[in-house]
Amino acid sequence: MTKNSKKPSKQQAPELASGPVWDWAAGHGPVTGALSATTGAFAVATTGAATGMPPGWALAVGAAGAIGHTAAGVRLRNAGRTIAARAASWLVGAGWTTWAVTNGPLTWEALGSLAAIGVGIGTSTRSTNLYEEAREEEALAAEQRAIAAELSAERREIAAEWIDRIQRVCGITVRVLAVERWETGTGFTIDAELPGGTTYDRIASHAPALSADAHLPHGCTATAGPGVHQGRTLIDVATINVLAKEETYPADYGPLSLHTGIPWGYRSNAEKIQTYLREQCALVVGPTGSGKTNMVHVILAGFARTTDVLTFVIDLNAGSAGLSWVLPALNHQPAEGEKPMRPGIDWLAGTVSEAHVMLDAVLRIGKQRKIAYQDLMARENTDLLPIGPQIPQVMLVIDEGAEILASTDRSMKGLAAKILEVIRLLRAMGIRTVLTALGSTGSVLGNIMIRREAKVRVALTGGETEGMDLGKLFPGSRGLKVEQAPFKGSGFMGTPESPVGLFKNWRILPNQIRDIVAATSERHPVLDAVSATAAGAAYTERWDADRIAWMHETGRTPVAAREVPADVDTDAGESRRGLNLSALRDPEPEPNASIEQRFQDLIDAEFGTDPEPPARPERTRLEREGLNLSALRDTGRPERESGPDWLADALAAIAGAGAAGMKPSAVADHVGRSRQAVRDALKAAAERGELIYRDNGPHSVYVHPDHA
Question: What pLDDT, in 10s, does the model give residues 572-605?
């Protein structure tokens, strides 16, 4: 065996030389305090005896120390026994020092008595310290008891008040078990036990009446939900309307995961609402002006922040919902050595043809995943494809997708069939949808596939009552009224994890969208190889120049796979199919007429044939009744291009209203037309500059330019 002669390094030296560590800033304990007092007294006595120091000096110093500690103890509000023990320690030590200076400190009698004094000082110090700690803990406990008593009194008062209110309004007597204040300070929750045979629906159906009886502010409600078991209920009472204030999207753009939830807004108690879309689809309903477009951007922001989601967007309105998430990356000019910025969404379809290409690719992805990942699911012992950064989930966001499913237009039926196939077949393979709609009507919710699969449901009301049948969107929920959420961006939301209730989404600004695209560029996952192969060139070439040229050029529409028919009104900005009337077609010359005429001329010149007899004049036909086509009428007056006939009366009424303006509903009542028709006409007039629109949520009005 060889001897290890390796010397310790400098870094190891402190470890080898380690020993007791003295904390010179620490205070004395019972042992160190007694040791310090006795050694100090012995040193003074020895020095004093050797130098002939007057014995009275030691006694004077001890008396001064006793007086000083007594004053300090009074200031610190120490107990009387603590003050007495410390003063006595000073006096006893001073007395021994005086005696030892006179008689000599190096005798056994002097050393024994000093040791006894040290033990006494240590014991008394330990005792007084324990007593002071007990006094301090008792004081804190007393303070907590006082606070608890005060809170308990407040809770008892709230409990008694609501027991009486529920008895008066709902006709049942409950027993309140607990009242918990929300941490946000905006309300409280009551945990109540129901009488036998009564469910919480009995209280939930009287939510508006309970809110009115409690004189809650507008936008605050008292909603009942299920408790820990069926015999108990939790009643959430909001006392401060947090939905009235507009909150911007949180500036924290940190990473999210599909499995831990994606925030879509906040409840009336200011708590975030988490959505879990691994197996669920979502439906977002909101009329024009309710904040639906902003909600779509909030949803896209959540998906952009995740590390296991790729977002495909279909918006047949020129792709407007997704352009804000694509253009920052397309317009980005990376510096030298900088990575190109990736768009916030992974694919954008702005035309029917591109939507077909996308949906076909999505269906191929889902079907190929079913085949290729069977071994993986077997190893993981699951029937759901394990979703993560390596195999991301595909979220298909379709703006006004519910209207596509309910449309009777032939070109939309093919899209609807593919969307329904995605919803029906690809849940386990990690492909889900988020659909939006303009209203919760029977035509939108008539499809059983939407009602069954879209378990995450949002109704943005903004005070709009038409087309907002909350009973159809949230079946089984009672007491929901549109008037409870009159603010833009507010409404009702329900998920499988949380019952339907009031909520509001954040206002996301354009600069925030750009910031999120930049912050999450390197966070987006890459489509797995199996899925990318199945999607083929339709996916890999989605950002080719010819397919995204319309995104760069102002005024250019998305490239379609077919030409625009002649009966499409392109000036109106929408494709609508009408009658292909021959009366509207320009007569086309026969393609071979000139050739036949030239051939006939050559025959006449060569053989001298007689010319053809003149054609027999057509017989004049009598006028008879037929289709009274407007295309064949000559009205004698130019077509009106500035709106319907009643618009002039509406403009005059708005001008007469002055600076206050008029709401669209008031204009509709004035001209006797439907509100939707009036909104469309007034919006077009505002775009032409004939009116000015003042956006103020439910109080928005149109004002004549003379009074703006």
Answer: 333 334 444 444 444 444 444 455 555 555 555 5
What number of residues does the chain have?
A: 708
User: Using CA atoms, how far apart are residues 472 and 440, in angstroms rounded to an integer?
Assistant: 7
Helix (H, G, I), strand (E, B) or coil at 568: coil
Fold of 644-707: Arc Repressor Mutant, subunit A (1.10.10)
Task: Report the C-alpha gap between 699 and 677 in whole angstroms.
Answer: 19
d(CA 552, CA 313): 18
> Over the Cα atoms of the chain, what is R_g?
43
Which residues on neighbouring strands pair with residue 283, listed in sequence order? 435, 457
270-331+341-552 maps to which CATH number? 3.40.50.300
Rounded Cα gap, residues 559 and 349, in angstroms: 10
Taking only the tens place, the pLDDT of each residue in 386-413 is: 999 999 999 999 988 877 887 778 878 8
Q: Which of 296-300, 534-538, 701-705 has the lowest mean pLDDT?
A: 701-705
**Whole-angstrom distance between the N-terminal and C-terminal Cα of the chain?**
101
* Topology agreement, domain 270-331+341-552 and domain 644-707: no
Hey, CA dihedral for 659, 291, 442, 408, is it positive or negative?
positive
Under DSSP, is residue 574 helix (H, G, I), strand (E, B) or coil? coil
Task: Give burial (CB, 10 Å; 0-12/13-18/19+) of 622.
Answer: exposed
Cβ neighbors of 572 (< 8 A, separation 6 or more) are none
Q: Within 13 Å, how many C-alpha atoms sit on residue 693's CB side? A: 16
Which backbone phi and psi does 285 adopt, to 5 degrees? -115, 135
Rounded distance, CA 440 to CA 451, Å?
11
Listed by start position, the domains of the chain span: 29-143, 171-238, 270-331+341-552, 644-707
How far, in Å, CA of 704 to CA of 707, rounded?
6
Name the token pair of 190.
């009551």
